[in-house]
């Protein structure tokens, strides 16, 4: 039950983070190149959507504990969360 709740919460946060990256990119880029910034944010998200399941499948087939997959999956999410936090903090201090 705890694992199901954790996975649901992680999925909710990942989808929310990917969606909010569009707003962060639109807010941080100047108007002249805003579409380029949002396009890059969407492109990086799509690359992650391709690499994530592939890497997860490789980790599932490797010998070892299946619980390690969750630890490996947490690293990119934490990096992305910190990057979004820092991007919003830098924008606020510039104003």
Features:
95 residues
Overview of the structural elements:
86% of the residues lie in helices and 0% in strands. The chain has 95 residues and is mostly helical. The longest helix has 28 residues, at 34-61. The protein is elongated, with a radius of gyration of 16 Å. The mean pLDDT is 79.
Q: Span between N and C termini?
A: 45 Å
Characterize the biggest β-sheet.
none
Overall structural class, as computed from helix and strand content, comes to mainly alpha
Give the overall form: elongated
- Helix percent reads over 70%
**What's the pLDDT, averaged over the residues?**
79
Short structural description:
86% of the residues lie in helices and 0% in strands.
Give the secondary structure arrangement, pairings included.
Elements (H helix, E strand, L loop, with lengths): L1 H27 L5 H28 L6 H27 L1
